Amino acid sequence: MAETIQAFEEPVYVTRPILPPLDEYIGLLREIWHSQWLTNLGPKHSALQKALSHFFKTKSITLFNNGTTALFTACQAFGLTGDVITTPFTFPATPHVLAWNHINPVFADIDPVTMTLDPGKIGPLITNRTSAILAVHAYGIPCDVEGIQSVAHRFGLPIIYDAAHAFGLQIKGRPVTDFGDATMLSFHATKLFHTAEGGALFVRDPVVKDRVDLLRNFGIKDELTVLMPGINGKMSELHAALGLLTLKMVPGERRDREVVAAIYREKLRDIDGVSMPTIRSGAENSYQYFPIRIGGKHATRDEVYNGLRRFNVFARKYFYPLCSDYGCYRTLPSAHPSSLPVAHKVASEVLCLPFYGALDEGTVIRICDIVRYLIQK
Ligand code: T4K
Known about the structure:
Elements: E1 12-13, H1 22-35, H2 43-56, E2 61-64, H3 67-77, E3 83-86, H4 93-100, E4 104-107, H5 119-122, E5 130-136, H6 145-155, E6 159-162, E7 170-171, E8 174-175, E9 182-186, E10 199-203, H7 206-216, E11 220-222, E12 225-226, H8 237-268, E13 274-275, E14 290-294, H9 301-310, E15 313-314, H10 341-349, E16 350-353, H11 361-376
Parallel strand pairs: 1-15, 3-4, 3-5, 5-6, 6-9
Antiparallel strand pairs: 2-10, 7-8, 9-10, 11-12, 13-14, 14-16
The structure holds ligand T4K.
């Protein structure tokens, strides 16, 4: 069979960004050049903020230069200290923003189906040092928002959601940004909606939202008044302009990704040892990644990952290794593998296949044929 499947001539990456026609972007750049206003919350920034407020049906949005700064600023705005309960199954940015704020990440195990924080594992880790819960909608698969809310409510803790992967995700007909006390989105180039680099923070409490706005701009209130030690988290006009154009492409990209996902599901469903995540009923797929789990007796995830590379397919092992296994966190008591068995199993099985709207049917089918060959050979 291997002889009949050709390696791809060009690398097939895990994702590719949507890009508007260059002329349209040049048109907006011309306006920026004409205005000579490049950053510091200019007209393109305002226009994108307005468009996203409309998209998410909320005014409580603050745009950032990336998702990590947004999350970092959330920790400051909520005055978090001590310990914050979080998931080990995430990108390094999630625990790092805690560490940069001198907060101890406390890792709780994840749910085997959603691969997000297991609410039942949070309560036993809460002490009088705990100041918040930082949960991640990994791959845009929603957390058990009701379960997490109930624990947070019981202990009076704020919930911050890292929704870096969850643009456009709806949970029970409500935008993802409706849940918890704050939600961060990433607009990095690898995301469904992007501004090349960028992000946003949605905050429920208007007092905290005002603090976020101040913190994003050095804590400056006016020319003579600096209220708090802030940071530079502003999104530039060039990034905002790109976002105005990519936002219009999101519905089409989602439709294209739905088609790609349907082909993957159809072609992979009967391969023994391959499973695909199910989305909780009442939630919509955010179509950010296409993760599969390889857990059978025929081939390991690493064999499939390495095999795909020989065919010029660059799938990714998001999120292996677990954050709790990084040198900087592994000595924390909560990082011990014995308390994170589900996360360890999931991280050893998961593989994100190439997933973006421009993938044509033939390419997707060929990737599935390669996966089948690697598992069944
Ligand atoms: N929380 C979570 C849960 C996150 O996943 C992330 C970021 C954050 C927080 C932080 O948000 P930001 O501060 O980044 O806004 C990528 C992204 O850089 C990162 O944003 C993302 N998560 C993470 C899951 O993926 P890498 O190191 O895997 O990226 P890289 O450069 O290997 O790119 C992956 C593939 O994408 C490439 O093989 C090809 C394609 N690509 C990439 C770029 C940058 C393109 O086609 N064009 C491009 O410009 O981290």
